[in-house]
Amino acid sequence: MALEVLMLLAVLIWTGAENLHVKINCSLDWLMVSVIPIAESRNLYIFADELHLGMGCPANRIHTYVYEFIYLVRDCGIRTRVVSEETLLFQTELYFTPRNIDHEPQEIHLECSTSRKSVWLTPVSTENEIKLDPSPFIADFQTTAEELGLLSSSPNLL
């Protein structure tokens, strides 16, 4: 896969008949979970303190219509699994503990995979390409002590 980040978009349906939209992004270093806090089935607004990621990590960016959990992949009990030589799978859970005691607490399993191959480090040239002539500029330019002294000395104004 040529993409460094695979994005998984999931609409999760909880057993309590609450619909919650969750978007997951990940890279080799970061995991970001975005949650839209409106349960469509009952027109219920979910508060930020009712959700946490993994081992008690709260939403660290709270907006009116989205909560974001942005953490390093080594934090919050996020687990890393090697799927192949080039692919890593990150696994964690999102916990919903409602304020309303009529609703049951929920646990949602989340997964996101990413490639170990960076698109920034992938060579784009081949051996069959036309080679450019070497630069006409001096590549091994060395300064002398005298030249350094001239560049660093300033006239004595006193």
From TrEMBL:
One of its GO terms (cellular component) is cytoplasm. GO terms for biological process: oocyte maturation. The keyword Secreted applies. The lineage of its organism: Eukaryota, Metazoa, Chordata, Craniata, Vertebrata. Its main location: secreted. Residues 1-17 form the signal peptide. Transmembrane segments: none annotated. Belongs to the PLAC1 family. This is Oocyte secreted protein 2. Keywords: Secreted, Signal. The keyword Secreted applies.
